Amino acid sequence: MKFTESHEWVKVEGEQGTIGITQHAQRELGEIVYVELPEVGTVIKAGEEAAVLESTKAAADVYSPITGKVIEVNESLSDASEKVNFSPEQEGWIFKVELMNPKELDALMDSGAYKALIAQ
User: Fold this and answer.
1) Cα separations in angstroms, 42 against 57, 71, 95, 98
2) Residue 115 dihedral angles phi and psi, to the nearest 5°
3) What is the average pLDDT score of the chain?
4) Cβ neighbours of residue 17 under 8 Å, at least 6 residues apart?
5) Is the pTM value of this prediction over 0.90?
6) DSSP run (H or E) holding 28
7) Is the pLDDT of residue 71 over 90?
């Protein structure tokens, strides 16, 4: 997994990247009650808003860590947004992209660098 300073993660398998928010982000947001998913087929650039999470505390944008074409969204979040609460880095994934520029991954943090960031 690779991480962003804005608390998104991406897990790359072959030409696909699965994207969601980190456990730290979920704790900061509180209970997620609604997820606005991106549209399949949309091309999202690294750093662009891709989804919106609404919690009992606030709404928060989810930014794509990498540039790619959305090939799948986690439809189950429409009826079960709580998956983001109890499993943000597994069952609560938000969307998948077909990678368009794999070199962008080099600019993201590994787990050690991310842990150091959130420990500050």
Assistant:
1) 29, 8, 11, 11
2) -60, -40
3) 96
4) 10, 11, 65, 66, 68, 96, 97, 99
5) yes
6) helix 23-29
7) yes
pLDDT tens figures, 13-67? 999 999 999 999 999 999 999 999 999 999 999 999 999 999 998 899 999 999 9
8 Å CB contact between 9 and 3: yes
Pick the CATH number of 2-101 from 3.90.1150.10, 3.50.50.60, 2.40.50.100, 3.40.50.1450: 2.40.50.100
Can you state the percent helix, strand and coil of the chain, rounding each to 5?
25, 40, 35
Quick one: which of 21, 22, 25, 53 has its CA closest to 37?
A: 53
